[in-house]
């Protein structure tokens, strides 16, 4: 396999279209046409990670965090980012980063946190509102079924637990081709009326090119009439954070002790106990202070995240408990998630979980 084939698999699972605008995801270093000798899966890419890739004959590093986050204006080896990139280039090692594209996936970073905590009835904490589009097109009655089927096969018409969803209105269309036209139905220079069906389907934004290709290849008209609109509907399968419930409620201290043990945290920083049972749990891997209000609005008893600042803890306002388990600790199982997904898709080269511990924080 070549690197691009692996990228296609990853982006089918977590499309970069849904990464946050501030992020830097995708292939950061390397030749996407190179044949793969092995892939090392890691949370972070550092010099030590590249050394491990070299030792294990891996010329692709699949990393959760991007080593290049802001623009590089020089490559002199003056800091850890430049040294890592230089070493990767010198050794023909490609680096791919997935980061918030996986954060936003329903079966991504936050789902695996919920799984480790045994949460049920899981839902996205902050559903995205910019990821659903609607296509409206017009087809001759006799061709409508063929066009709908092509759109469905391309991924259109999926709404939650339902597929093949569309709305159809029969009517009469009109058109007149000029001298340069080559109409399939009717004659150039003459106005023509045709019994048509208006077909409306929704689709995930990242599928747009595939949907349009299916439309154009299945439609009989020389010029296909269609409209595309972006919808503000909340996508319940995509977004930041997750909220779920414990099967059996527990007290705050017992929950935090179990949390610390499960995630092997050096310490768990938390806001004041409210002396209320823990039942509803919100999570957001990595830096999640921005979602405190969302966790409160969702009725969570506790919100688990990382990188909370001193004043962030005041935002609990005695409505929930805030728990900071550490950035690395909250995302440590991400590489296992990627390994599990890719190992079911790939058998032609070695997939290796990195042994290098990239956590920069240590505890006494």
UniProtKB/TrEMBL annotation:
<dbReference type="InterPro" id="IPR015867">
    <property type="entry name" value="N-reg_PII/ATP_PRibTrfase_C"/>
</dbReference>
<comment type="similarity">
    <text>Belongs to the GTP cyclohydrolase I type 2/NIF3 family.</text>
</comment>
<feature type="binding site">
    <location>
        <position position="331"/>
    </location>
    <ligand>
        <name>a divalent metal cation</name>
    </ligand>
</feature>
<dbReference type="GO" id="GO:0046872">
    <property type="term" value="F:metal ion binding"/>
</dbReference>
<protein>
    <recommendedName>
        <fullName>GTP cyclohydrolase 1 type 2 homolog</fullName>
    </recommendedName>
</protein>
<dbReference type="InterPro" id="IPR002678">
    <property type="entry name" value="DUF34/NIF3"/>
</dbReference>
<comment type="subunit">
    <text>Homohexamer.</text>
</comment>
<dbReference type="InterPro" id="IPR036069">
    <property type="entry name" value="DUF34/NIF3_sf"/>
</dbReference>
<dbReference type="GO" id="GO:0005737">
    <property type="term" value="C:cytoplasm"/>
</dbReference>
<dbReference type="InterPro" id="IPR017221">
    <property type="entry name" value="DUF34/NIF3_bac"/>
</dbReference>
<feature type="binding site">
    <location>
        <position position="103"/>
    </location>
    <ligand>
        <name>a divalent metal cation</name>
    </ligand>
</feature>
<keyword id="KW-0479">Metal-binding</keyword>
<dbReference type="Pfam" id="PF01784">
    <property type="entry name" value="DUF34_NIF3"/>
</dbReference>
<feature type="binding site">
    <location>
        <position position="65"/>
    </location>
    <ligand>
        <name>a divalent metal cation</name>
    </ligand>
</feature>
<feature type="binding site">
    <location>
        <position position="327"/>
    </location>
    <ligand>
        <name>a divalent metal cation</name>
    </ligand>
</feature>
